[in-house]
Design a protein that fits this description.
The structure holds two protein chains of two kinds. By secondary structure, chain A is of the alpha/beta class. Chain A contains ten helices and 14 strands. In chain A, the strands form two sheets. An eight-stranded parallel beta barrel of chain A has the order 1-4-5-6-7-10-11-12, surrounded by seven helices. In chain A, strands 13-14 form a two-stranded antiparallel ribbon. The two termini of chain A are about 15 Å apart. The model of chain A has no long low-confidence stretch (mean pLDDT about 95). An eight-stranded mixed beta sheet of chain B has the order 2-1-3-4-13-12-11-8. In chain B, strands 5-6-10 form a three-stranded mixed beta sheet, with no helix packed on it. A two-stranded antiparallel ribbon of chain B has the order 7-9. The mean pLDDT of chain B is about 95. Classes of the chains: A alpha/beta, B alpha/beta. Chains A and B meet through α5 of A and α1, β7 and β9 of B.
Amino acid sequence: MLRPRITPCLLVRNGGLVKTVHFGEPKYVGDPINAVKIFNEKEADELIVLDIDATAQGAQPNFRLIAQFAAECRMPLCYGGGIKTVEQAKAIIGLGVEKVAISSAALESPRLISVIAEEIGSQSVVVVLDVKKRLAAGDYEVWTHNGQKNSGKSPVQIAQEAESHGAGEIVVNSIDNDGQMKGYDLELALWVRKAIRLPLTVLGGAGSLADIGRLIAACGVVGAAAGSLFVFKGSYRAVLINYPGQSQKEDLISSALNHG
Amino acid sequence: MIKIIDYGLGNIRAFQNVYKRLNIEVSVARNADELATASKVVLPGVGAFDHAMELLNQSGMRKALDTLILTKGVPVLGVCVGMQILARSSDEGQAPGLGWIEGHVRGFKSLRQDQLVIPHMGWNDVQPKSSTKLFDQLESKARFYFLHSYYFQCDRKEDIAAVTSYGTEFSCAVNAGNIYGVQFHPEKSHHFGAQLLKNFADL
């Protein structure tokens, strides 16, 4: 049986590991490579690393840091941040990264998704959508540049466009729920899940394994990504890299799928 | 020595890292001379079938590889697209494959299952079907990481080394004589993958 993926998402800024709340207040939480080593030991399903400053500052991807991640990481690795060209995507895959994540560049030019997919294969092209809810209207819009720019487009529309251009995975990241640790936006997750046939990974809001269980119960075999949950411990948000053990993970998944 | 073929595709470093942790000496072959002394060969690959064949044929290693595998009987392990090109052909392209294992590569799309999410991405069970040593000492619930949209369909039942279910039951590992292939990524499958790569080294 194909299992849902439980995926730590590490945010990187100036080479350090940080965690944000609503995409702001980046708090330094340690050395990212050390975190990768711990997730290796815990046998995490996958890892997502996002450089949150690269695009906002118009910077190149930090290839030296990516090479370090790729060398250390014993699980499939997805890297995002600052990727604007097919050359950059190829270079990153060449460093030993399984998947590249693009966001603003994919929104500006959906053709870029096809161009990259032709070179590295669809399965390695991930499109990340940072989504904010419009409170008055109750619908959703995709934002870019670390949550600074509103594209004015709906996540479902962009996800479907990305699928038709050859993306291999969609990551939906809730800006509203980022760092809140109060659960995923299940309504958003289910809406996008039903609109595409690609693998979906949901990020933003997980505060407990029960939250991951609720996402799996709602969406079935899906990627459940989390930052704070795997970086902090306890209500005082003490930094402690953590990840469920194998049997704990299996129990969580089977009970969630049975109650879905 | 085990040689990992670098023809511009696949995660060469990940294989080197796993073998380094296992204290097994490997090196990378980028040309026919470097390949010539191989006692075993790992053939990685990601991306499209035709692109992989084109790069392999242009690498200058194709003839040396044919001699090693087909004449000298050196064991080879194809991984992901490196496994798919062991077949004769693929739904994904027009180029002829290596044709070392009788079979054709089909797309999950061809199953016409509307609910099937493609690519097949994530950790799935692997059920050994033959007595191949590749799966020695792996626990019964061994699982591996998959990331692919096409799958290997063997012509001959005896070449199926292991199966996985996704939309259909497909050959996730193949073996005929000295030729081995796995669809999943042992280099990124934690201790399960490390054991499999060790088993290949111990053949």
